[in-house]
Design brief:
CATH architecture: 2-Layer Sandwich
Helix content: 25-40%
Largest sheet: 4 strands, antiparallel
Structural class: alpha+beta
CATH class: Alpha Beta
CATH topology: Alpha-Beta Plaits
Length: about 60
Amino acid sequence: MRTRGWWTVEPDEVAELVETHGRLVVGGEGELMVEFQDEEKAKNLSTALSDRFGEQVLLAP
């Protein structure tokens, strides 16, 4: 499973949190995505991002 998103905070802080739940990958057109083992990990990351950054970081399926 992969998701896309955007953020308005320090990228290193986002990457650090993302890597605890999934794997950052670059798509064929240069888009930054997160790859997950399962949907539960995607939900957990979404919750963790919201808890830490509020609405400054969003994921899209």
